[in-house]
Amino acid sequence: MSNEKPAATGAGSGASRAALNVRVWRGAGEGSFQTYEVPRQESQTVLDVVTHIQRVIDPSLSYRFACRVGVCGSCAMNVNGKARWTCRTHVEKVAADGNLEIAPLSNLPVIKDLVTDMKEFFDKWARARGRFAGARTRDDDFARVMPDSPQRRNVDAGIECIGCGACYSACDVVQSNPAYLGPAALNRAWTLHNDVRDVMRVERLASVAGDAGCHACHTHTSCSERCPKQISPTLGIAGLKRAAAVAALSGEI
Amino acid sequence: MKNDFRARIHPAWWAFALHRASGVLLALFLPAHFWLLGHALQSAAALDDVLQWTALPVVKFAETGLVLLLAAHMTGGIRLLMIEFLPWREWQKTLLALAAGASVAIGLAFALNVF
Q: Which residues in chain B have Cβ-Cβ distances shorter than 8 Å to A104?
């Protein structure tokens, strides 16, 4: 958390260590980078930098954030060319030389400045049948899922996704094949595939086994590199590939 | 917006690039390979005539490159199969190192053998 103070920008900040040189994408699909000088502060996050620009220098800057503590998944942006959650990205870790380039996430339409249209991203979760479908009612007893069962462990490995879109932005397959469901939607499908209470397993495998599904993954592992929650969608996608292959061989899909 | 090289600076992406490049180069080499083997259909002497050519150091050097490409493509492929069938995340970068090391070892072994 930064202690934002209105500061004179440009004037008097001769020492480069005291100021960050920040290039920020302005505009929609057509646009350009604009440069701002932002005072450097201790424990400053990239989101703090964007907030400073919007509050102190240029109120017309659009960006998206909510929780500021890495829970909501709203504030992901490209920072120096890499997709990151900006609220938990410290400036000193990504811009030791004082230069920052902040752009909207890749592979998504830009609405304005740093705000992308996430509709397609989340529509793909629906297309991957990313919704739990159970058979029990409130009159049934609780399902008992052993914490150390292999399925439950698979779910644990992927369930912490916050839907920030960093993996989707980093994915080269999404870039070359816009229909590709992408790492986040497939990771979601994988966690549900491993949910022993779920009753849509076969339908879900059919949904993720098409040309735009798990088999399109080229195992670049850029998604796993960029996930701020250290999830490996590559692992889940590999699991879906095996499950879909077994289901196809046994005639289920 | 589209990603540039900065989004791709990580070992697994380099492994993909090497796998793709070695595959394309090996595919380009295949016609030459078949042309050479085609001489065996004519006569043993015809094949030997061409094979004499492989005694040139520059050809040996190129062959070493080919063996490196083959080794890189094979170990890269085995690595992918291992990721897909034994999906432990911790393994991935170790596998990359093993694949790279095995490729270089195979290439060097070939070079030692021919020179």
A: 1
Q: pLDDT tens, A180-215?
A: 999 999 999 999 999 999 999 999 999 999 999 999
CATH numbers and ranges of domains, chain A: 16-116 (3.10.20.30), 119-249 (1.10.1060.10)
Q: Do A219 and B3 touch (CB under 8 A)?
A: no
B111 interface with A at CB cutoff 8 Å:
no
Q: Count of domains in chain B?
A: 1
Is B6 close to A220, i.e. CB distance below 8 A? no
Question: What's the token pair of residue A217?
Answer: 């993954």
Q: Which domain holds residue B64?
A: 5-114
Provide, as residue numbers in chain A, all residues whose Cβ is less than 8 Å from the Cβ of B95. Answer: none
Nearest CA in chain B to A226: B7
pLDDT one-digit tens code per residue, A107-160: 999 999 999 999 999 999 999 999 999 999 999 999 999 999 999 999 999 999
- ∠ CA B2-B6-B12, rounded to 5°: 105
Close Cβ partners of A27 (under 8 Å, ≥ 6 residues apart): A110, A112, A113
How many angstroms separate the CA atoms of A234 and A239, rounded? 9
Has the ipTM of the complex gone over 0.90?
A: no
Using a CB–CB cutoff of 8 Å, tell me whether B4 touches chain A.
yes
